[in-house]
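User: Sequence recovery, please. Input:
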């Protein structure tokens, strides 16, 4: 998450990234828990930066899925 914090303005980081949490991984998909369904748009908004951060950390994921606590 630190890599993303350096790439976006502080307000965007606080709004979009800080409330997210690791949920689980299945195969090559990383699941990230978001507080509300509206947060699932984070992938559309910041997908390129998220993928860049995954690659920079040499993580072995092909995709990221955003889920709410109820899913």
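Assistant: Recovered sequence (71 residues):
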């Amino acid at each position: 998450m630190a890599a993303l914090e350096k790439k976006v303005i502080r307000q965007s980081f606080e709004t979009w990234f800080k409330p997210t949490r690791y949920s689980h991984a299945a195969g090559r998909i990383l699941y990230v828990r978001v507080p509300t369904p509206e947060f699932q748009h984070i992938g559309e908004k910041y997908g390129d930066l998220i993928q860049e951060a995954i690659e920079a950390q040499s993580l072995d994921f092909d995709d990221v899925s955003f889920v709410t606590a109820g899913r």
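Helices lie at 2-5, 10-17, 42-56.
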